[in-house]
Structure formats: structure tokens, C-alpha cells
């Protein structure tokens, strides 16, 4: 017996209701699956964000731990006093200090030693972070394919004052190692007497030192009186050195380094003011030159070039300091951070 029309309608209704139920259940399952997927995506994003934050923090730490400073110190510019601050702080601030001792204090390295030095500085991870110092001329690391260059810093001094200090240092030594016999020990001739007699140790050519130290390992750098060397030294000072101070304003130099590179110089300013090694090395038996001796040296083209470089460095240092330091009640204070970020897009 065939089902009636009413029974057919009832059957169709049941089937439709059954499929509606299936669709509803499927929709609920799908919605829950989508919700679970969205939750997983959010969790993954949070995990990735946290991982990125940790990686960024680790990268910052690794970046600081990978820092290398090179102080290619010019003789008789208060370099020993400054270097001893680095030695006193290295244990506390957790970095290494290494002295670059070249044979006969030759500031120019052979090409093979340049390669060795660059390799050591960049790959000697056990010594990082590191503060290298020594009487070596500027070395351009980019010539050797290095991507991350070291940070160069330096100090320079009034050229005649530096020469006078060096002249007496060779004869009488200093209070750092008073028992060490110097190369010109026994020569009692004063600097003025040397200038008057036209001696070689006080000749204008002896002024030619700070320019080649900043100029670098090019032959022209060491040609006395080279205009190209002067321009190259200025270029390197501005483009390759983070900071170049002057001996006459050493405390300001130390303060600015502490603000810029606390990983190395945290506590340096206080140590300079109160430490026993801040003014450690004073040349013995030094007699200031007369105005006549100074005037005679200032007539030379070499002095004019070295003094030009010194004035250039001094102006640059004072410019940097003017944008970093303020004076209040006779004391200098480093400026706080005066930039911030805004209008950061896209919005989260």
C-alpha cells in the first residue's frame, strides 16, 4: 500500500529537519574549528612576538658584547692617563683591554700584520667586548671586507705642547716609570736651546705626527707637509671616529664617552675626578718654551698644517659637546634623551 500524500509530506519534512540538524551541527563544528584556529593563530602570534622580543633583547645584548673599541693613541696626549681608566673599569664593566705593542713603536703595520690584526679584532670572540690601544696609525677595516667595523676614538693635543712634552720625556722620563732609562737621557739641553741651535729633536718636522696618525697606512700620510694627508686626516676624523677629544679638555671627553658608551665607560667620570691614575703620567723636568721659540716654530708650514688639524679637531669636539652637555652652577651635565617616536603605523 502506497504512502498517502500527507505521509509523503511528513517524510519530506523529517528529511529536511534531519539535514537542517546536520547543517546546524556542522556549522557549530565549523565555528568551533574556526574559533580554535583563531585562538591558535593568536597564541602563535603571541609566541612569535615574545620570541621576537627575546631575540631583539638577546641581539642587543649580543651587539653590546660584540663591541670593539680601538684607541690608536698619539704619544704624549695624556693617553696613559686615559688608558688607565679603561684598565680600572674593565673588571667592573666586564670587557677586555689589550695593548697593541708594535716593534720599536712603529705606527705603520706591514700588509700581513694588517690582515692578522683585522682578523684578530673581528674574530677573537673570547676577547669581546674589547678595548684595544696602541701607538698605531688609523687602519681602514673596510678594505679587508669587514662588515662591522670597530669604534675608533682618540685624543689630540696642541702640537707644540705635545712636542715639548715629548722632547723632555726622551731626556728625563716621567713619573710613571721613573727608573726606566730613556733614549736621550743625559742630554741636558733645554727645548729653547735646541730651537736656538736648530737641533733635529725640536725641528718643525717633529711636529708631523697627529696628521699621519689619523691619515693612516697610506704612503702619502707620512710625507711631511702633505696637503693630501691633512685632508685625509680630517676626513677620517669626521667619518671614521666616533669621538676625538683634546688633551686640554680630557674630563669632558671622558664624560661624553660614559654617556655614549656606558657598556665600557660606566663610572669613568667619577673615577677620573677621584682616581689616583687620572693624571698619572707627567713628564719630568719639563720647562715651558719661550715666546721666541714658539714663534720660530710657528713660522713653519708644518706647524701651520698640524695646528690647522688640531683646530679642526677642537672645533668638532666643541660642536659635539655643545649638543651633549649643559653647564649648571659650574658643573657639567649630560643632556637626557631628547627624541622620541610617534605616529607608529600600522596600529595593532
TrEMBL record:
Instruction: Report membrane topology.
Output: Single-pass type II membrane protein
Task: Give a Gene Ontology cellular component term annotated to this protein.
Answer: Golgi membrane
Keywords assigned: Coiled coil, Disulfide bond, Glycoprotein, Golgi apparatus, Membrane, Signal-anchor, Transferase, Transmembrane, Transmembrane helix
Pfam families on file? Sulfotransfer_2
InterPro entries found in the cross-reference section? Heparan_SO4_2-O-STrfase, P-loop_NTPase, Sulfotransferase
Gene Ontology molecular function terms on file: heparan sulfate 2-sulfotransferase activity
| Cell compartment(s), UniProt | Golgi apparatus membrane
Gene Ontology annotations of biological process type: epiboly involved in gastrulation with mouth forming second; regulation of canonical Wnt signaling pathway; regulation of cell-cell adhesion mediated by cadherin
Q: Which PANTHER family does the record cross-reference, listed alphabetically?
A: HEPARAN SULFATE 2-O-SULFOTRANSFERASE, HEPARAN SULFATE 2-O-SULFOTRANSFERASE 1
In the record, the note on similarity to other proteins reads: Belongs to the sulfotransferase 3 family.
Name of this chain's protein: Heparan sulfate 2-O-sulfotransferase 1
Q: What species does this protein belong to?
A: Poecilia latipinna
Amino acid at each position: 500500500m502506497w504512502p498517502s500524500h500527507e505521509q509523503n509530506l511528513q517524510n519530506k519534512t523529517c528529511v529536511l529537519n534531519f539535514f537542517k540538524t546536520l547543517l546546524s551541527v556542522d556549522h557549530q563544528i565549523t565555528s568551533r574549528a574556526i574559533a580554535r584556529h583563531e585562538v591558535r593563530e593568536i597564541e602563535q602570534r603571541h609566541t612569535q612576538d615574545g620570541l621576537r622580543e627575546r631575540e631583539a633583547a638577546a641581539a642587543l645584548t649580543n651587539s653590546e658584547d660584540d663591541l670593539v673599541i680601538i684607541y690608536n693613541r698619539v704619544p704624549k696626549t695624556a693617553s696613559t692617563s686615559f688608558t688607565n681608566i679603561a684598565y680600572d673599569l674593565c673588571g667592573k664593566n666586564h670587557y677586555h683591554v689589550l695593548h697593541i705593542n708594535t716593534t720599536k713603536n712603529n705606527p705603520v703595520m706591514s700588509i700581513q700584520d694588517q690582515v692578522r690584526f683585522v682578523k684578530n679584532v673581528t674574530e677573537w670572540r673570547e676577547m669581546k667586548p674589547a678595548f684595544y690601544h696602541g701607538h698605531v696609525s688609523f687602519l681602514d677595516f673596510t678594505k679587508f671586507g669587514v662588515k662591522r667595523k670597530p669604534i675608533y676614538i682618540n685624543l689630540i693635543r696642541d702640537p707644540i705642547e705635545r712636542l715639548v712634552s715629548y722632547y723632555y720625556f726622551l731626556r728625563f722620563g716621567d713619573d710613571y716609570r721613573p727608573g726606566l732609562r730613556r733614549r736621550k737621557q743625559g742630554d741636558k739641553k733645554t727645548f729653547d736651546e735646541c730651537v736656538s741651535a736648530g737641533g733635529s729633536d725640536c725641528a718643525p718636522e717633529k711636529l708631523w705626527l697627529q696628521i699621519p696618525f689619523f691619515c693612516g697606512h697610506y704612503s702619502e700620510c707620512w710625507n711631511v707637509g702633505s696637503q693630501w694627508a691633512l685632508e685625509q686626516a680630517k676626513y677620517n676624523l669626521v667619518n671614521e671616529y666616533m669621538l676625538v677629544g683634546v688633551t686640554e679638555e680630557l674630563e669632558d671627553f671622558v664624560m661624553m664617552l660614559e654617556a655614549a658608551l656606558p657598556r665600557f665607560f660606566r663610572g669613568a667620570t667619577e673615577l677620573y675626578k677621584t682616581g689616583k691614575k687620572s693624571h698619572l703620567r707627567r713628564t719630568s723636568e719639563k720647562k715651558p718654551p719661550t715666546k721666541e721659540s714658539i714663534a720660530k716654530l710657528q713660522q713653519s708650514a708644518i706647524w701651520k698644517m698640524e695646528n690647522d688639524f688640531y683646530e679642526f679637531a677642537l672645533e668638532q669636539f666643541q660642536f659635539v659637546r655643545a649638543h651633549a652637555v649643559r653647564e649648571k652652577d659650574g658643573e657639567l651635565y649630560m643632556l637626557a634623551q631628547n627624541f622620541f617616536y610617534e605616529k607608529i603605523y600600522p596600529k595593532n
